[in-house]
Design brief:
Structural class: mainly beta
Distance between the termini: 16 Å
Helix content: under 10%
Order of helices and strands: EEEEEH
Strand content: 35-45%
Shape: globular
Number of strands: 5
Length: about 70
């Protein structure tokens, strides 16, 4: 799993695996899901990140596992 933040594009991208992306769908304004050939979600892109989380400091992202 990879998490990428593009400050210039104001976007966050979560890639779940390395399978080939064959389709993308904007499921909500600024939320794009990427699908592989098995129709499984393999990526999630969140656009306009600063408007969605104005206090977010991308250099201090925290990860939690359950």
């Amino acid at each position: 799993m990879k998490l990428m933040v593009d400050e210039k594009a104001d976007a966050l991208y979560l890639r779940l695996d390395d399978s080939k992306i064959v389709e993308s769908e904007e499921v909500s304004t600024g939320i794009v899901l990427d699908y592989n050939e098995k129709n499984q979600v393999v990526g999630v892109e969140i656009l306009h990140l600063s408007a969605r989380a104005p206090r977010l400091n991308v250099r201090e992202l925290q990860f939690q596992t359950a």
